[in-house]
Description:
By secondary structure, the chain is mainly alpha-helical. It contains four helices and two strands, in the order ααββαα. It has one domain: Multidrug-efflux Transporter Regulator, Chain: A, Domain 2 (Orthogonal Bundle).
Amino acid sequence: xLIGKFAKATNMKVDTIRYYEREGILRAxxxxxxxxxxxxxxxxxxxxxIRRYRTNRPRPVCRYRPQDSRR
Length: 71
């Protein structure tokens, strides 16, 4: 599957997928003629995991209060 279809299947932007691949987070796709990326169904697991983690991770608690900085 080409990167456009892969982006739709994972609900991510094409630039995000390229970034993850460049940083080594996502395994590099095979290349077709003219250097098109060809993603297999096995590639879907990592972006799905990342999206699930990003939406369900605990949020940090902000302990800063503006009144604490005033003296």
